[in-house]
Design a protein that fits this description.
Elements: H1 2-12, E1 37-45, H2 50-59, E2 65-68, H3 81-90, E3 93-96, H4 109-125, E4 132-134, H5 142-150, E5 155-161, E6 184-186, H6 196-208, E7 212-218, E8 220-222, E9 231-233, H7 234-245, E10 252-254, H8 257-261, E11 293-294, E12 299-300, E13 310-315, E14 318-326, E15 333-342, E16 346-351, E17 360-361, E18 368-376, E19 381-387, E20 393-398, E21 405-414, E22 424-431, E23 435-446, H9 451-488, H10 495-500, E24 506-508, E25 514-516
Parallel strand pairs: 1-2, 1-7, 1-10, 2-3, 4-5, 5-6, 8-9
Antiparallel strand pairs: 11-12, 13-16, 14-15, 15-23, 16-22, 17-22, 18-21, 18-23, 19-20, 19-22, 24-25
Helix pairs in contact: 1-3, 2-7, 4-5
């Protein structure tokens, strides 16, 4: 199936030839217009509502580039594997957008490389022709650009640099080939303030100045009357695509990012896993920018100080607030989570969901004991999440409840053995009702079996070994009897039987060798 998808996509997507499928064939006796202005529809994150735009483009014989966060695929609000297959069959391009959608200049170089390379490797494994990349939050640096190249991409897109209301003096279009293929410029991000006239103006301005390349950056695609700040209406995309189709005879074309840049498909790049480590910043003493990107505005997360390698975890409908307070269990600081209203779900402090810079590298099948110190006005419990090979994080298990505590109290829980495929772990104490929870000094350790369990395991292994030895002895005895019987009947002995059946006057000597009586 993957091979079929790859062949289909190569024919109609990023690996297609220079002439895009939306260009009409030249009439007999005429010459096709020279393509002067190229427009690329690009969509970040793989939001589920972007399938609306894909259907619009398909209606007009156009194709887009969809940058996918592999760790978000098959999660609520994002595309499914089935959606990605549909895009590939329709001729759209599947591009990389990392595994965890972190701001790459603010993570370690090792984590940045894991994010870029592993994201592409997952998409390649799923069968897609992956040559294009987009930086999460449009945050990039020369070091990150170099990693995109090393990881096998032949182009990477930012979200600024061309003329827009925020940059009236910028160039009207990117050059072809681009000035820097690993920092391809755009007129910014299309959001709710963009109207059809603004999109058309970006194209006509480029046409008047000799053409060029205009990659457009979209996120959510909305059908409602009230859309989010980073949304484009389906009706606007439809009208814009229809208008672009009418300009084909002027040499204006719609192409994917990969069609413009070209380049062969390079193989997957090896990605060393994160080294084993315990909880990072367990006492919540260090603050830093964790690299998180707010998906609602595609911008870096709140700049309010937050403990390094930790994130706010929550789901459902509830009202919570976070505050780093003085008076930790051992150090100076602790984290206080207050839930003032609860309708559903919970909230908790968790290790950053990533590929090992902050999350804890673990081994599938092993059991781990998690622990922390807490104070709480209501009951609380541990929740554990684990990471699967695609980078997606899944809820695993919860402990029994711990009672409210006015003074610092130690909570420890031996979690079940992790399932197959688990390579990363994140855990924390949760609030699932109104109350205040303060935590500090987190720890984790590989669960060591008790002395009784070790004795039981050794006994079972010994019994299994004895049983196996007895079974082997019975098998050899049956083979010898059968061989002797065949010899008595005049049938030739098999070679292994000749070697295993002793002669009638032979018996083992003191040193184990045969001795003749």
């Amino acid at each position: 199936m993957a091979a079929v998808l790859l062949a289909t996509f190569t024919a109609g997507g990023a690996g297609a030839a220079a002439v895009s499928p939306q260009q009409p064939a030249a009439r007999p006796g005429s010459h096709a217009p020279a393509v002067q202005t190229v427009v690329s529809f690009t969509f970040d994150d793989g939001d589920a509502d972007q399938m609306r735009a894909a259907r619009v483009l398909r209606k007009y014989g156009m194709h887009g580039t969809f940058y996918i966060i592999t760790g978000a695929v098959d999660t609520p609000g994002y595309m499914t594997r089935r959606d990605l297959r549909a895009l590939a069959v329709w001729g759209d391009e599947i591009g990389g957008h990392t595994v965890s959608h972190l701001e790459l200049p603010h993570v370690t170089p090792a984590e940045a490389r894991r994010q870029i390379c592993a994201g592409r490797n997952v998409l390649l494994k799923w069968g897609y022709h992956v040559t294009s990349f987009a930086y999460p939050g449009a945050a990039y640096s020369p070091q990150v650009e170099a990693m995109a190249r090393v990881c096998g991409f032949d182009n990477a897109r930012i979200a600024a640099g061309l003329r827009s209301p925020g940059c009236p003096g910028c160039p009207v279009a990117e050059t072809t080939p681009p000035r820097n293929p690993y920092a391809i410029r755009t007129p910014g991000q299309v959001d709710g303030t963009w109207k059809l006239a603004g999109l058309e103006r970006a194209v006509t301005t480029a046409e008047k100045h000799g053409g060029g390349w205009i990659p457009l950056v979209f996120h959510h695609v909305c059908n409602r009357n009230h859309c989010g700040s980073l949304s484009a209406r389906t009706s606007v995309i439809n009208a814009f695509a229809r208008w672009l189709a009418s300009r084909r005879n002027l040499g204006t074309s719609v192409r994917t990012m990969g069609q413009v840049t070209g380049g062969p498909l390079r193989p997957a790049t090896s990605v060393p896993p994160a080294r084993r480590h315990d909880v990072i910043n367990p006492g919540l003493e260090t603050l830093s920018n964790s690299g998180t990107v707010d998906p609602t505005v595609e911008a870096p997360g709140p700049r309010a100080p937050f403990p390094r390698c930790w994130m706010k975890g929550a789901y459902g409908q509830n009202t919570v607030s976070w505050k780093r307070i003085q008076g930790g269990h051992t150090g100076r600081w602790a984290m206080r989570l207050a839930m003032t209203a609860h309708h559903s779900g919970d909230a908790k402090l968790l290790e950053q969901f990533d590929l090992g810079q902050c999350s804890i590298p673990v081994t599938a099948g092993k059991s781990y004991t998690v622990a922390t110190w807490y104070k709480s006005t209501t009951s609380t419990q541990f929740s554990i999440y684990y990471r699967i090979p695609s980078g997606r994080w899944k809820y695993w298990a919860s402990s029994s409840f711990y009672q409210p505590a006015r003074q610092w109290t130690h909570a420890a829980w031996q979690a079940p053995p992790l399932p197959a495929g688990a390579s990363g772990l994140s855990f924390g104490l949760t609030l699932s009702r109104a109350g205040v929870l303060t935590t500090d000094d987190y720890s984790i350790g590989l669960t060591q079996p008790s002395t009784g369990r070790r004795i039981l395991d050794i006994t079972l292994l010994a019994l299994l070994g004895l049983g196996g030895a007895a079974a082997v002895a019975r098998t050899l005895q049956r083979r010898r009897r059968r061989a002797v019987q065949e010899a008595a009947d005049g049938q030739p002995l098999p070679e292994d039987a000749r070697q295993s059946v002793p002669g009638p006057a032979s018996s083992p000597g003191p040193d184990g060798a045969g001795a003749t009586g």
